[in-house]
Amino acid sequence: MKYDIVPYSDDLKSGIFDFTDECFRELGKVFEPSGRHYFYNDIDHSFESFHCLIINGYVAGTAALKRLDDNTAELKALYLDKDLRGQGLGFRLLDTEVSEARNKGFKRIVLDSMSQYSDALRLYDRYGFKRIERFNDNPYADIFMELSL
Fold first, then answer.
1. What is the dihedral of CA 14, 84, 123, 148, to 10 degrees?
2. Cβ contact 101:73 at 8 Å
């Protein structure tokens, strides 16, 4: 399968919105770019890094970093088309953001997740993320992890 992992550009925005909306629906959630997900409207300024997995011209995965402080980035928006899971593409997206974090001088990456996202949690465990105490007030998250860089 031919794919590319590319940095965000404005021409990908509508594809990102469509893809994210589809992912959220599959998870039983609602994508709200005019509400609680407002930061998707200004990806360039909301994220330190944002990459898309492109297959056949379509966004099929995303991953991003948000700066929390000079030493810490938070992994955000790691989503992958459900039909592509188990092929190493989620790992490649994650690895792209970890490399970005290292290149930008971050010392650690943190993330929050939910215990029902077992595929994602297995990926984070395999990559070397470790469980930590809650670091934010996300009312939906019950799993918190970090990777030292």
1. -40
2. yes
φ and ψ at residue 137, rounded to 5 degrees: -110, 25
Can you give the three-state secondary structure of the chain, one letter per residue?
Answer: CCCEEEECCHHHHHHHHHHHHHHHHHCCCCCCCCCCCHHHHHHHHHCCEEEEEEECCEEEEEEEEEECCCCEEEEEEEEECHHHCCCCHHHHHHHHHHHHHHHCCCCEEEEEECCCCHHHHHHHHHHCCEECCCCCCCCCCCEEEEEEC
Rg of the chain's alpha carbons, rounded to an integer? 14
pLDDT in tens, 20-69: 999 999 988 999 999 999 999 999 999 999 999 999 999 999 999 999 99
Token pair 């948000």: residue: 66
What is the pTM for the complete model shown? 0.95
Report how far residue 97's alpha carbon sits from residue 100's, in angstroms, rounded to the nearest whole number.
Answer: 5
8 A C-beta contact, residue 33 and residue 22: no
8 Å CB contact between 78 and 63: yes
Q: Which domains does the chain have, with CATH numbers?
A: 4-148 (3.40.630.30)
